[in-house]
Amino acid sequence: RHGCLRYDQTMTAAAGRDLAAPHGWALEDDLRAAIGTGQLSLAYQPLVAAEDGALRGFEALIRWRHPRRGDIPPAVFIPIAEANGMIHAIGEWVLHEACAHAMRWQWNAQLAVNISAVQLRTSGLPAIVAAALAASGLSAERLELEITETALLDGSDQVVEAFTQLKALGVRFALDDFGAGWSSLDMLRRFPFDRIKIDRSFVMSMQSETRSAAIVRTVLGLGQALSLPVTAEGVETVAQLTALRQLGCDQLQGHLIGRPKSKASAPSRQPWAATGCPDTVTPSGRRG
Ligand code: C2E
Ligand code: MG
Ligand code: MG
Ligand code: MG
């Protein structure tokens, strides 16, 4: 009523603090204590080929089990960590932990790690990624960094330089939650992304809303025009899976295929059977 207010991530962080304050506990202090005390862990969600369900890799997703409050979702604590700078310590831990885990997998699956734009804005990220790769022995080609479109991903020299250095290491980039944020097309123009991930909200409504279906088709066309493979997130039904396969989507992720689990494991259910495609989800990528 009093004008225009532009959202920025510190508002979510402030909301998190407001949420915690009346209960007499400070999320922020607890998060500081959580780092290095085993309260943080990683879950892994499978990424599969849309064509035949072959396992391609896993996305690492952070989990925080608070000793008294139980599980606190990353959507609540990551924005707080971004606002107060703790994201640097957390992000470094995630990279080391995920790369070390990936080396213990029995096959050379891809590893996707979420990176906050805040991490990219400081000069240290390429060195941190290089150190995580060196410490684990993981080859850079197996690592894909996922970045959510955000106002923080500006064209500043710092960000462009970090991007360039990381690409030179051989690491790839995915543009996460595509379509849900803002200036996504500009992002694709300015940065050499290697993959687009369509936001879950479009996939979830593509069967019920013709507009969502049109947007999904258009993003897939955009990926084709830019020669970028597209991953669909949030695939929950066989109808979505079938439609995405028919539309030529490259990769699928979602509860239908596999939920995030504490250990990387091949999906046990085989939703492809329902589409008339041979079930092929095996760790080695071979037909089984
Ligand atoms: P994201 O990177 O887009 O990750 C996908 C989110 O969708 C995950 O939520 C996952 O559990 C959820 N998901 C996957 N399939 C389905 C589905 O079929 N249905 C529904 N309803 N949800 C599904 P999660 O784990 O709560 O993570 C939320 C966000 O937090 C992530 O979104 C990512 O932006 C951020 N995040 C997670 N881990 C990290 C991390 O290590 N570092 C940073 N910087 N951010 C992280
Ligand atoms: Mg992601
Ligand atoms: Mg996403
Ligand atoms: Mg997301």
From TrEMBL:
Residues of the full protein shown: 289 to 576 of 581
Protein name: Diguanylate cyclase (GGDEF)-like protein/PAS domain S-box-containing protein
Residue ranges of every copy of the EAL domain listed in the record: 24-274
Coiled-coil boundaries: none
Stretch list, region Disordered: 259-288
Organism: Inquilinus ginsengisoli
